[in-house]
Amino acid sequence: MPSSIRRxxxxxxxxxxxxxxxxxxxxxxxxxxxxxxxxxxxxxxHSAISEQVQVFFTTPTRNYPDxxxxxxxxxxxxxxxxxxxxxxxSVDVAVFDLDLPSLVEALIAAKQRGVKVRVVIDSENLADPxxxxxxxxxxxxxxxxxxxxRAPFMHNKFVVIDSAIVxxxxxxxxxxxxxxxxxxxxxxxxxxxxxxxxxEFEQMHMGRFGSAKRSDSERLAAQATxxxxxxxxxxxxxxLPIILDHMEQARSTIVFMAFSLTSAxxxxxxxxxxxxDVRVSGVVEKRNARGAGSVFSHxxxxxxxxxxxxxxxxxxxxxxxIDDKIVITGSYNFSDNAENTNDENLAIIHDATIARFFLYxxxxxxxxxxxxxxxx
Length: 376
Hints:
Layout: H1 13-34, E1 53-57, H2 75-86, E2 90-95, H3 101-112, E3 116-122, H4 129-140, E4 145-148, E5 157-161, E6 165-169, H5 175-179, E7 184-189, H6 191-205, E8 228-234, H7 240-248, E9 253-258, H8 264-275, E10 279-284, H9 286-289, H10 296-301, E11 305-308, E12 318-322, E13 326-330, H11 336-340, E14 344-350, H12 352-370
Parallel strand pairs: 2-3, 3-4, 9-10, 10-11
Antiparallel strand pairs: 1-7, 2-5, 5-6, 6-7, 8-14, 9-12, 12-13, 13-14
Helix pairs in contact: 2-3, 3-4, 7-8
């Protein structure tokens, strides 16, 4: 071997390990910057309305083969059934879809204790054998069930208990919405808000849907310096101008989670906010992101940070959070049908404490959109 060619000495093991650690640290830093983890869940601090409101979110899991009878009931379902078990006077349920056997049994048990139980449901889902069977079971136990048989949906999801407690949000009382879809539910303790929801329920229970309903002027659950809850119902209350007014007043951030986003006025308001240097970001249910009427691509082209969700089932929220202190939620999708034809309800909550819970949920949903699950 020529003297000019020398053997290369192997690098010491400690130097190799040090180099590998450096590469890992660089990768971790890049990953953290491009895939931010959700913030820690906020701690509840008392505010003007936080003692009246509890916020719940589903944590979807999908296992194969799926076995609904082995699903552990999440906190929102346990709490609602607990409220039903303590009902003494009345329970009114207005829900688009209902197929939870445990909930139906709780309603029947309340009826058997002498509680006045009434249900309004959309007829759209009676084609589902589970819905038809459970609806028939309630009728067999003499629970009056009123059906909305119009083409527009009775799309509400609310329960009023003893004229004192209201449950509302995006949560249909179904297996899918409880165990597979992303949803929110808010529980409000307020006689005033309960009266507003009962006024709406009474009209639908009498067969008055859509534009046949009348508005109720009493809407506020609580009002303090910076906190309030205001309730709107479609189509009689025309909530869209109120939503747009809040969006136009945004100064720092608008984030949204939308099962359906087809409203041209809402789209324009989001783009206007971007042009005012408001940070706008959102997640849209993937099966609707590219569907008819979707504005997903248009928003992305106009600078909105928008993603398709990563849930193998549905991201079912209808939520907007403005300036980290205003939450818009309910059954109301951001669509013309929600504004003009469907029966819907919408809560606008001015409270930074409540907003923090929804911001945490948004961070969780966004993280799943960035790293979507592998779906069978």
